[in-house]
Amino acid sequence: MVSKVSYRMHRILWFKIGGRRMHLLKLAGSFFVLASVLKVAEAAYNIFLVVDKINMARMRPDLIGQLFGWAMGSPYSFSGEDMLGVLLGPVASFLFWLGMAVVALMVYQSGKVVFPIEEYETKVADHHRALIEKAVRGSKRR
């Protein structure tokens, strides 16, 4: 009895520009890596901007409305909850783009697109397997 073998077909997609062949996944991956690294840098910069705004708001509470666009009463002090709330957005954006950079790097590093192909048992396939098995047994006897 012959065991069922699962076959996988690997394809490398090529893109031809000006007579040069380029690996399509690597080309797309390189653009994704570049864009996501730029967005990570932008998100990190936004975190530093918000921290500077928080420091300014703690020193001069009268500027809170201008710094954050909040309409509050003037005798307001900037609390720890406010700091956390203001930092949540930039930190979440930073983590999101960092995750996207990792995914983009995985796309760039992958060299193949895997298309799983399932083998269906048919009479013709069984016949060919039997012939191959017979030929292998015959060559081992010699």
Poorly predicted runs of 5 or more residues: 117-121
Shape category:
elongated
Structural class: alpha+beta
Count the strands? 4
Major sheet: size, sense and barrel closure? 2 strands, antiparallel
Query: What is the count of structural domains?
Result: 1
- Rounded average pLDDT: 76
Instruction: From the alpha carbons, calculate the radius of gyration and give it in angstroms.
Output: 30 Å
Proportion in helices: 55-70%
Count up the helices. Answer: 4
Strand order within the widest sheet?
Answer: 1-4
Distance separating the two termini: 22 Å
Strand content: 5-15%
Question: How do the helices and strands follow one another from N- to C-terminus?
Answer: EEEHHHEH
Describe the overall structure.
The longest helix has 36 residues, at 24-59. It is elongated and about 95 Å long. The protein contains four helices and four strands, in the order E-E-E-H-H-H-E-H. By secondary structure, the chain is α+β, with helices and mostly antiparallel strands. The two termini are 22 Å apart. Strands 1-4 form a two-stranded antiparallel sheet. Strands 2-3 form a two-stranded antiparallel ribbon.
